[in-house]
Amino acid sequence: MNIQLFKPKFRNEEIIPLIEECLDKGWTGLGFKTVEIEEKWKEYTKLPFAHFINSNTSGLHLAVKILKDVNKWKDGDEIITSPLTFVSSNHAIVYENLTPVFADIDEYLCLDPNSIESKITKKTRAIMFIGIGGNAGQLNSVIEIAKKHKLKVILDAAHMSGTFIKNPHTGEIKHAGHNVDVSVFSYQAVKNLPTADSGMLCFNNEDYDSLARKLSWLGIDKDTFQRTNSKGSYKWEYDLVDVGYKYHGNSIMASIALVSLKYLEEDNSRRREICDRYEESFSKNGIQTVKIHKDTVVPSRHLYQIVVKQRNKFMELLNSDGVFPGVHYRDNTNYKMYEESYGTCPNSHQLSEQLISLPLHMYMTDEEVQYVIDSVIKINKIIE
Ligand SMILES: *Cc1c(COP(=O)(O)O)cnc(C)c1O
């Protein structure tokens, strides 16, 4: 057996003609297919704005930068964030000379609203919320806290393509990102909507969205030129008002994304089916699993995580059975750059030593799912 954690599934026969179209047309960059994927993503999620970018990481950076610039935050202002995440979420804060303040996580591995409240200071400007595994955890309560304290909410939605959340007050069920200031999705190869590297930056405000478009293309602003130059516009003339980055997506990635988006619902259903099998067997066998919060009515199920004693030993035994799971994530306060915060988030610290993400991908057969289940149950007995 050799069952890996992730294996992206691409529909080559549908992707290749779209890429060929780009190559034949001689248009592989910004525009063309990037416009199409933005339109299709908005149609699917009903989010008002979507800007296709070259990764979730660059999108998070732009999200933080734009909120900082527009709202005149100062260097050293604080964003409350989670220690249990991929390094990108917190790098985005540090890129902009802001301070990540770590709050602890709850049983859903997402930020705990109570812990957030205890970390708010005069310098707090925003909350960086990470929807781990496609689970929105207590995001709805976190949004209430943010409103009360006039904080912005940035959603690292890297795992949340296809996650739909219920608003407990209105009963509405909407795609992740609808009720935050900005959400950033990842279309990296192992995520639910695979390309090679790309993502979507979704502001809920038109001015922020146009700023994002400008800053993702080196700060070049054709619109400003057109507004300020009444003699009309030459294609080669544009204004530059700000330093920007090279963060926009391209038409080759967009071609892959268009096909992956078409299959997102189907793929996520299969993910949920695998997770339901895991859940049913493990609950009968006393294995602790990470539950989905009830507000996350449709979870994307990017990850399926169990909580075990002696995690490293457990992993070794799984490996010797030919099962190769992963860990999401190492508590970021274990890293040298955040050592000052070490020990401030006990739940995150403990869970980070106990979590295992089991194999979950489109190539897994039912037999392989059963093999993983049997192996986990067997090893759990040995270790207990
Ligand atoms: C993958 C991931 C990212 C980074 O996404 P890229 O598109 O690779 O930049 C950020 N945050 C989380 C939680 C992730 O899993």
Summarize the structure.
The chain has 384 residues and is α/β, with parallel strands linked by helices. 40% of the residues lie in helices and 14% in strands.
Please provide a written account of the structure.
This protein has helices at residues 12-25, 33-45, 56-71, 87-95, 113-119, 139-149, 206-215, 222-228, 251-262, 264-284, 311-320, 346-352, 366-383, and strands at residues 3-4, 51-53, 78-81, 99-102, 124-130, 152-156, 164-166, 173-175, 182-186, 199-203, 220-221, 239-240, 288-289, 305-307, 323-324, 355-357. Strands 2-10-9-6-5-3-4 form a 7-stranded mixed β-sheet, sandwiched between helices. The chain has a 3-stranded antiparallel β-sheet with strand order 13-14-16, with helices on one face. It has a two-stranded parallel sheet with strand order 1-15. The longest helix is centred in the last third of the chain and has 21 residues, at 264-284. With 384 residues, it is α/β, with parallel strands linked by helices. Helix 1 (12-25) runs antiparallel to helix 9, helix 3 (56-71) runs parallel beside helix 4 (87-95) and helix 3 (56-71) packs across helix 7. It is 40% helix and 14% strand. A hairpin with a 6-residue loop joins strand 7 (164-166) and strand 8. The structure holds pyridoxal-5'-phosphate (PLP). The site of pyridoxal-5'-phosphate has 14 residues, from helix 3 and helix 4.
